[in-house]
Amino acid sequence: MRARIALALAVLFGTAALHAQSAADVQRQFIGNWRLVSFEQFDEKGAGRPSAYTGGRIMYDTAGHMAAQLTYSNRKPLSTPSTEAERAAAYQSFLSYYAKYSIDPAAKTVTHHVEGSTNPNWASSQINLVRWYEFSPDGNRLMLSTKNDAGRVTGTLTWERIRQ
């Protein structure tokens, strides 16, 4: 009887190991440059609405570094010389940061360990941005979701791989 239980456990855990991806396997899927397709935000009732960020790029390299830029599509040009209000609007409509990243395949998360950002609070506090990831079956789309402290999805960014 013990032999059957041991065999069943070996098969069960062996099968799970075949389906589990290592961090290196997942990292290979992340590597490259991605274009923002959509950014949807969700309210406390789960209703979705498009984010004001409509354009962007994100990249991941093999050395464990990443960079992201998000922008509004309707940014107004600055006058010459620009006003304080124009510069504030330009700042509000663009977000950029760079970080080291780590992957937890069991939790299906990628964590961006922010090193520098247009938001000085992120860089000064060395914030960690945790994103839950999912790849499309063909590997050409990457969905990164944000969650609140209760575990509710608050936003999903969909990225499309940029082919060279």
Detailed description of the structure:
The chain has one domain (22-161): Beta Barrel (Lipocalin). 24% of the residues lie in helices and 45% in strands. It contains four helices and nine strands, in the order ααββββαββαβββ. It has helices at 2-19, 23-30, 84-92, 120-124; strands spanning 32-42, 48-50, 53-60, 65-72, 94-104, 109-117, 128-135, 141-147, 153-161. An eight-stranded antiparallel beta barrel has the order 1-3-4-5-6-7-8-9. The chain is globular.
**What low-confidence regions span 5 or more consecutive residues with pLDDT below 50?**
6-19
Please name the CATH topology: Lipocalin
Q: What general outline do the C-alpha atoms trace?
A: globular
Structural class: alpha+beta
Oligomer: single chain
Number of domains: 1
Number of strands: 9
Task: Tell me the distance between the termini.
Answer: 57 Å
Q: Mean pLDDT score, rounded?
A: 89
What integer value in Å does the Rg equal? 20 Å
Label the CATH architecture: Beta Barrel
Strand order within the widest sheet? Answer: 1-3-4-5-6-7-8-9
Alpha plus pi helix count: 4
Element pattern in H and E: HHEEEEHEEHEEE
- Tell me the helix content: 10-25%
CATH class: Mainly Beta
Largest sheet: 8 strands, antiparallel, barrel
Q: Strand portion, in percent?
A: over 45%
